[in-house]
Design a protein that fits this description.
heterodimer; A: 330 residues; alpha+beta; five-stranded mixed β-sheet; four-stranded antiparallel β-sheet; 9 helices; 13 strands; 24% strand; B: 137 residues; mainly alpha; Non-ribosomal Peptide Synthetase Peptidyl Carrier Protein, Chain A; 4 helices; 2 strands; globular; ACP_chloroplastic (chain B)
């Protein structure tokens, strides 16, 4: 039994961006998903949904309907409508996104099974015949109440993190950084005199560090934040550049780890974006051919971004104002 | 485990959900009381043996709850129990880390990274705090 669709929700409408995007596709359907090919090894796909743009009660019920009982319980345990809605959209987004790639004929979002690795990182539990290899699809999700995102790669570990641009923390930023970040990162932040800029750089750094830890898949304690530094290549000794000063093509985000050997940390590449004018998104992926010198000199990978309302519409927003690349990819 | 059927959920513009536990509606979303979906409900100690001195003091639980309320800017009507998970209240990883930092400041302790991953509920935080405070004494 589905809720009657309320007219008051319809009046506000779903805002669509009237932008000219070469690869823009709109697909209107009550319950189907546009199939899509897996990203190439050097490519990342990013799908996101804005909860404020999903107003249809019947659509939300459709999402609830594709979840198994345990995931539904988890959604309903959240306190408050906003939290329940974003939790629901997070599960719906990951299931519908993976279903689009139709791996081994898995095209039904309902039939996907998930499990957690040793350290708690979610992964797909593929149902396949013994003579098949596990599919190469990797994914990671991140959500805030105002944006839910899912990143997909082929044959590469991935971690993503999204945060509201205007997020503030309760603690003093430098106190927090001294407690949790590395010495170099504290120096970087301490050198910024404008508190607004400092706060924004802090949030960007947080998302990058989170994305790295999530890509590693070892959990927060597997790679404590203090044990690695994320920095921007091209920053002069003794000075600093905020990320806005650096041109995306000229610079690169790199990670230095105190524990790992140098070549292990060069296995990872980072991208930092501003999404929908409202969020920072950090993406960390494994570099291909990481064993070879040639692999390490690879050009930054390609990123394709879709804004979606699962089952309703998808819009490719790469190259539009919805995706501002701060550093990393093309 | 209680089964939730789609027919008992309605999403209107206000997204009000009657919450079912063990097939009884126990409250609407805004005034949620504690319900254990298969979790052990014992207070104060839920995981460890009764013989161990691990039960957190009620004052500790109270202080932890206050810190959580402040960090997550919860409305006064939001009911908290020792088993409440931070994630249920909308805490993301940044919030959780701030909560841990707040606890360290309040109780003058230091929480190692391995331990902070295990702090997912008010009870777990209180248990760890009392353990660390006792160690200091």
């Amino acid at each position: 039994m589905q809720a009657p669709f309320r007219l008051s929700g319809m009046r506000r409408g779903v805002s669509k961006m009237k932008l000219h995007c070469f690869e823009r596709t709109f697909f209107h359907s009550s319950s189907s998903l546009t199939p899509i090919q897996l990203p190439s090894p050097m490519e990342t796909h990013l799908w996101y949904v804005k909860p404020s743009e999903v107003k249809s009660g019947s659509l939300l019920n459709q999402y609830l309907d594709i979840l198994p009982p345990c995931e539904r319980e988890n959604v309903l345990q959240m306190r408050g409508e906003e939290l329940r809605k974003s939790a629901l959209l997070a599960r719906a987004l990951v299931r519908t996104t993976i279903a689009r790639y139709q791996i081994n004929s898995h095209s039904n979002p309902r039939s996907l099974k998930f499990r957690k690795n040793l350290h708690g990182k979610p992964e797909v539990q593929w149902q396949f015949r013994d003579d098949q290899h596990p599919p190469p699809l990797h994914f990671n999700i991140s959500h805030t109440t105002s944006l839910v995102a899912c990143g997909v790669t082929t044959n590469a570990q991935i971690g993503i993190d999204v945060e509201e641009k205007h997020r503030s923390i309760k603690h003093n930023i430098l106190s927090f950084a001294r407690r949790y970040f590395s010495k170099h990162e504290v120096q970087f932040l301490a050198a910024i005199s404008d508190p607004q800029v400092q706060r924004m750089e802090f949030i960007k750094l947080w998302t990058l560090k989170e994305a790295y830890v999530k890509a590693l898949g070892k959990g927060f304690s597997g790679a404590p934040f203090k044990t690695f530094t994320i920095r921007f290549k091209g920053v002069m000794e003794g000075g600093f550049n905020t990320l806005e000063d650096l041109s995306p093509k000229a610079s690169e985000i790199v990670v230095d780890s105190f524990d790992d050997l140098a070549d292990l940390t060069s296995n990872w590449q980072f991208s930092l974006l501003e999404l929908a004018n409202s969020h920072y998104a950090a993406i960390c992926t494994e570099k291909h051919g990481a064993g070879s010198d040639e692999g390490k000199r690879n050009a930054p990978g390609k990123l394709t971004v879709w804004k979606t309302v699962p089952f309703l519409e998808d819009e490719c927003v790469s190259g539009t104002a919805a995706v501002k690349i701060i550093c990393g990819v093309q | 485990m209680a089964a939730v059927s789609a027919t008992c959920i309605r999403f209107g513009t206000s997204v009000e959900l009657p919450v079912r536990a063990n097939n009884q509606i126990i409250g609407k979303s805004s005034s949620l009381v504690s319900f254990g979906w298969g979790k052990t409900g014992g207070f104060p100690c839920i995981r460890t043996s009764r013989l161990q001195i691990c039960a957190a003091k009620p004052e500790t639980v109270e202080k932890v709850s206050d810190i959580v309320r402040k960090q997550l800017a919860l409305s006064p009507e939001t009911q908290l129990t020792p088993q409440t998970k931070f994630t249920e209240l909308g805490a993301d990883s940044l919030d959780t880390v701030e909560i841990v930092m707040g606890l360290e400041e309040e109780f003058d302790i230091s929480v190692e990274e391995e331990n902070s991953e295990n702090i997912t509920t008010i009870q777990e935080a209180a248990d760890l705090i009392d353990k660390l405070v006792d160690k200091k004494a």
